[in-house]
Design a protein that fits this description.
It is a single chain. The chain contains seven helices and six strands. It is α+β, with helices and mostly antiparallel strands and 255 residues long. Among the domains are: 95-172, Methane Monooxygenase Hydroxylase, Chain G, domain 1, CATH 1.20.58; 178-248, SH3 type barrels, CATH 2.30.30. It has a four-stranded antiparallel beta sheet. A hairpin with a 2-residue loop joins β3 (207-208) and β4. The radius of gyration is 43 Å and the shape is flat. It starts with a helix and ends in an 18-residue tail after the last strand.
Length: 255
């Protein structure tokens, strides 16, 4: 009777082992062999294997037309600006005809272009266009037709430069914030002007904020203002509130 429990224990262990063998066999059958796994990966294009292998050497190559958020926008704008400023100068060496005729046509085209830019008050673009055209045409200045168009281009270029300088001077003058609050005058006596922020009334030829008063009228004061070695005259009316643009609220020093 003492050996009966031991026999039962052995039978129980034997039954458990026999039951575990089919389970392990089924698990082994369910697990794919390495060769089968490699075959399956190759059948699906080897995506997982390629990702694991080439992950460290991966280089981003954007699709054509894809907008990249890391694109250098200032550099792109600079290149676009250069492309816009670049003019199509005829290749006189490759031309089969008379190179002077080609340059004459180019000169007329640039003269028309700079005229339109000045009319549209695009003075900065007009100056750049004139500089490029003059540089390309100077060696053909001996030709009568080209010389005529060259004079026209120079005239428009100088006109645009003067207008651009005057606009800059006007902006710098407005930044001085000169406001006329009143005028003291008499028919037989010296007229004085009261300017906001000034400690005393001022007369003709007095200096105020980089300007000189040149005329005092009944409702207006004229100032002389120097900018880039040029002299300009700007008026201010009584009660007028000058408004400086964003670019000129902190006036730059005159060159």
């Amino acid at each position: 009777m003492r050996h009966l429990p031991l026999s039962l224990l052995l039978l129980t262990l034997a039954g458990g082992l026999s039951a575990a063998e089919p389970a392990s066999a089924s698990a082994t059958a369910a697990r794919p062999a390495p060769a089968a796994t490699a075959a399956a990966r190759s059948a699906t294009g080897g995506i997982e294997a390629a990702t694991l292998i080439d992950e460290d050497d991966w280089v981003f190559e954007p699709m054509v037309g894809r907008v990249d958020i890391f694109h250098d926008i200032p550099e792109r704008l600079r290149v676009q600006r250069q492309a816009a400023d670049k003019q199509d100068v005829p290749d006189v060496n490759a031309s089969k005809g008379d190179p002077r005729k080609d340059m004459a046509a180019y000169a007329k085209e640039q003269a028309d272009r700079i005229e339109k830019l000045v009319a549209a008050r695009k003075f900065d673009d007009a100056v750049k266009t004139g500089d490029v055209a003059i540089k390309n045409l100077e060696r053909y200045a001996g030709d009568a037709d080209i010389e005529q168009w060259l004079k026209t281009i120079r005239a428009y270029r100088d006109q645009a430069d003067e207008a651009l300088t005057r606009d800059e001077a006007q902006a710098q003058f407005d930044a001085l914030q000169l406001q006329i609050t009143g005028i003291l005058w008499a028919e037989s006596g010296q007229r004085l002007v009261i300017i906001a922020g000034e400690p005393r009334a001022l007369a003709v030829n007095d200096r105020v904020r980089d300007c000189v008063i040149i005329t005092i009228d009944s409702d207006r004061v004229d100032f002389r203002f120097h900018w880039k070695r040029k002299r300009f005259e700007f008026p201010r009316y009584v009660g007028e509130s000058p408004v400086a643009t964003t670019a000129t609220k902190s006036p730059a020093k005159q060159p």
